[in-house]
Amino acid sequence: MDDVTAVLDREFPARTVAETAPARRGNTKETTLVRFADGGGVVVQFSADAEAFRTELAVARAVGARTAVPTPRVLADGVLNGRPYAVVELVDGVDLHERFSRVSSATRRRLSRGFGRSLAALHGSFAFEGYGAVRVEDEGEDGDGSDDGDEEAARDPSDAAVTLRSDGAGSWASWFDAHVRDGISALPAAFDDVRGELLAALDDAHLPRNPTPRLYPWDLRPGNAVFDGEEVVAVLDWGGPLAAAAGLGAAKVEHLVADWYVADGDPLRAAFREGYRSVRPYPEVPPVYRLAAVVRSAVDSHGVVTRPRYPELEGEAAVGFHRERMREWLSVASAADD
Question: Considering the entire predicted model, what is its pTM?
Answer without folding.
Answer: 0.91
